[in-house]
Write a structure and sequence with these properties.
Structural class: alpha/beta
Largest sheet: 8 strands, parallel, barrel
Low-confidence stretches: none
Number of domains: 1
Shape: globular
Distance between the termini: 11 Å
Mean pLDDT: 96
CATH class: Alpha Beta
Helix content: 40-55%
Order of helices and strands: EHHEHEHEHEEHHEEHH
Number of helices: 9
CATH topology: TIM Barrel
Radius of gyration: 17 Å
Strand order of the largest sheet: 1-2-3-4-5-6-7-8
Length: 245
């Protein structure tokens, strides 16, 4: 059985750095610690307000990974904003995950509408794929709408797992596990790869980690919260263990 890969989102390391200024914690050093612990990739999500990862962090991190960690994938998450997409095209990460943004949101909280947003996504995805950048679109866990993302031209979808994570340990857990697994199957049947992310942790990964159709999970908030208790290395190893590595 193939195991889903782990991409560690280091946004919160940047948030901590920004609260004090200067370069502590160092994003490149933090990424290296995660990679040494076994992470398969590093994710950053630059936002227009630059409240955590800043625009100038991204090329530095990309160069660091190329020089010191060849083979480790860089995933840039961002909204389909022209300036952010220009940066993605210049850096050419392994993957670009497109995420819709509502002004004022605390964090990402919904996926794209594959029908209403189809044309705008097509216009963004085509030039990214032409540069060899794998694309993924943030998607709500709605099994019926998942296959429709194939019409956007995207390579993968990333399932928004917030509601699933919040249902873990409640009477709704089983229903949400079934729902996510149905989404993964629907995506695969439509020829789409599958990533997942948002509030996943070493506990709730159990509901989806054994599904052969899951390619990758992106985890940031839970990882750094756990790192405050046991350290970055141990927190990453726990996530890998939950994925079966």
């Amino acid at each position: 059985m193939a195991h889903a890969k782990l991409s560690v989102n280091i946004n919160k390391y940047a948030l901590l750095r920004n609260s004090r200024g200067h370069d502590q914690p160092s994003l490149t050093a933090s990424a290296s610690v995660c990679i040494a612990a076994g992470a398969h990739g590093i994710t950053v999500h630059p936002r227009l307000d630059q409240r955590h990862v800043r625009f100038d962090d991204v090329p530095v991190l990309a160069a660091h990974l190329t020089a010191h960690h060849p083979g480790i994938e860089l995933n840039i998450e961002c909204q389909d904003d022209p300036d952010l997409l220009a940066m993605v095209r210049e850096i050419r990460p392994h993957q670009c995950t497109l995420v819709p943004v509502t002004p004022g949101e605390v964090t990402s909280d919904h996926g794209y509408d594959p029908v209403a947003d189809r044309d705008r996504l097509r216009a963004v995805i085509e030039p990214l794929k032409a540069l060899g950048i794998r694309t993924s679109c943030f998607a709500d866990a709605e099994p019926a709408q998942i296959p429709l993302f194939a019409d956007t031209g995207t390579d993968r979808i990333e399932l928004y797992t917030g509601p699933y994570a919040w249902a873990w340990g409640t009477p709704e857990q089983a229903a949400w596990v079934a729902r996510l697994r149905a989404c993964i199957t629907a995506a695969r049947d439509a020829g789409l790869g599958v990533n997942a992310g948002h509030d996943l942790d070493r506990h709730n990964l159990a509901g989806i980690a054994d599904h052969d159709g899951l390619d990758e999970v992106s985890i940031g908030h839970a990882q750094i919260c756990r790192a405050l208790e046991v350290g970055t290395t141990q927190s990453v190893k726990e996530l890998l263990a939950a994925l079966g590595w």
